[in-house]
Write a structure and sequence with these properties.
With about 375 residues, this protein is of the alpha+beta class. It is built from 15 helices and 13 strands. The protein starts with 5 loop residues before the first helix and ends with a helix. The mean pLDDT is about 95.
Length: about 375
């Protein structure tokens, strides 16, 4: 069996994830396609991940891709997480993953509505959705609060998990908006504040064309292997949230080839076994939830187990990380005065320290007056900002 070393995997990561300066991209869409999908749970991550990989970092370019050209779109998809993907790849993400999640989201909401204590039904939900869409058509773009003001049904309160110790009363507006977005009937428009804000306006959208789920999974697996391969079945299962059966069928459908890894058997896209050309030494300051840290279940080839406690929260979310030549060697944060600070958890040498300093200066330069606080805070990030 052909073997691919951990060192070769790190070289692939630097080149294919556009992290070395010589391979940086010229558009946010090219960045998203290079890593398949940008994590979008935290609004700032999309911008930080994209600009770290752009030859010319530009908030305006990312905003244009998201809101004017709609060349990047947000989908609730892999692992029930919000991602930003290119409009070209979006139908495959939708059919392979997002469709099933949307069905579950709607079913869960209907179960809550139809509980005896709430006394609502599917017809009520359908009418509330149509009223919300009509209000949105009139406004063109609206916040959830504006839609609630226009549609009385959206001001309804429901009791969730009645009789349980975690019983709670919720407004229904955010739940209705969530299922409309999951179905592709509305999408997030510009935020109320700056690019770091997660309080979005909403605007009308059209559902993605229906594709066979198995074919879509195979196509998504092919893209993922080209970006993250070699990788294991377990890695793909973790990243997608698919069943092991669906993972194996997708790998077989795409013709994935087995290779030997330091930790066992992995897979690459067909014909993708040749050594990757080396790139120049590189450093990167990547944000919380960046794809290069969250792309595999097993990160042993680029992350020391000793560093995990400092850099991840208890739910497995990675914080801001410092990279050197394909390995995570520390973490960074932005303090309230705007300063970018970092701590290295291993000594990479003088060349690395100087390159990291330059990359921190580059980050500080384009971030400007914006202030970044990750949604999922990690021990080292908290320590650096204390």
């Amino acid at each position: 069996m052909h073997r691919i070393s951990d060192e070769q995997r790190r070289i692939r990561l630097g080149r294919r994830h556009l992290l070395a300066p010589s391979v940086r991209a010229d558009s946010p869409v090219a960045v998203a396609d290079a890593v398949v999908a940008l994590h979008a749970t935290d609004a700032s991550t999309v911008f930080l991940s994209a600009c770290a990989r752009l030859g010319e970092p530009s908030v305006a370019a990312v905003e244009r891709s998201l809101y004017k050209d709609v060349a990047l779109v947000r989908l609730l998809s892999m692992r029930r997480t919000l991602f930003a993907v290119s409009a070209e790849l979006a139908p495959y993400v939708d059919a392979s993953t997002a469709r099933a999640i949307a069905v579950k989201e709607r079913r869960t909401l209907i179960d809550h509505l139809t509980d005896d204590v709430n006394g609502l039904d599917e017809r009520w939900l359908a009418e509330a959705e149509e009223a919300a869409l009509a209000a949105l058509a009139t406004r063109g773009s609206a916040t959830g609060s504006q839609l609630s003001a226009d549609v009385p049904a959206l001001r309804t309160k429901i009791t969730v998990f009645p009789g349980k110790k975690y019983e709670t009363v919720q407004g229904v507006a955010s739940r209705v908006i969530r299922v409309l977005a999951a179905d592709g009937r509305i999408r997030r428009d510009r935020p109320r504040g700056s690019w770091t804000s997660s309080q979005f306006h909403w605007t009308a959208s059209e559902p993605w064309p229906a594709l066979p789920a198995a074919e879509a999974r195979a196509e998504l697996a092919r893209h993922w292997l080209l970006s993250y391969g070699p990788a294991t079945e377990a890695d793909l299962k973790w990243w997608t949230g698919w069943t092991l059966g669906d993972v194996r069928k997708a790998l077989a459908a795409v013709g994935a080839e087995e290779v030997g890894l330091d930790e066992g058997t992995g897979y690459v896209a067909p014909g993708d076994m040749a050594p990757e050309p080396t790139v120049e030494p590189w450093a990167a300051l990547l944000p919380a939830l960046d794809p290069s840290a969250m792309g595999w279940g097993d990160r042993g080839f680029h992350l020391s187990a000793d560093h995990r406690t400092a850099l991840f929260d208890r739910s497995g979310n990675v914080g801001p990380t410092v990279w050197w030549n394909g390995q995570i060697i520390g973490g960074w944060a932005q303090r309230t005065d705007g300063n970018i600070v970092w701590r290295l958890l291993t000594d990479p040498g003088g060349e690395a320290a100087a390159t990291i300093e330059a990359e921190a200066s580059r980050l500080s330069g384009w971030v400007g007056e914006a202030r970044i606080t990750p949604r999922f805070r990690t021990p080292l990030e908290r320590e650096l900002t204390a």
